[in-house]
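Q: Here's a chain of 125 amino acids. Please give me its 3D structure as tokens.
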Amino acid sequence: MRITASAVSVNVADPQASARFLIDHLGFAEQMSADGFVSLERPDAGMNVIYLRTGLASFKPKSAAGSAGEGLLVVFTVDDIDTEYARLCDEGVPIVTPIETEEWGERYFQMRDPNGIIVQLVQWV
């Protein structure tokens, strides 16, 4: 087997709102979209992020659709967490967990997108 690409797909009420959050604040670009679907890319992210509208008929299996992002963290590792934290605070991004460092060396903070999805930036120190 050879894996040629990776993606995470997240159910949300408003795919365009979550997509706009990653585009505006984390530099993603829209790769493709349709009614109830947006696929985002960023060459250095290592995966695409796909947003699907909750209840979309094409989601299979229906039993796995679940609610919008419950218990999900979308996490990206960055080089300079303090600079990113200051920039995103200046941009007015809703920070739900201020920057902190865990004893095992994970320095991170968490923000909430318009659909309530938690996006976490991490730097290993």
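Q: Can you summarize the key feature?
A: DSSP finds two helices and eight strands in the chain.
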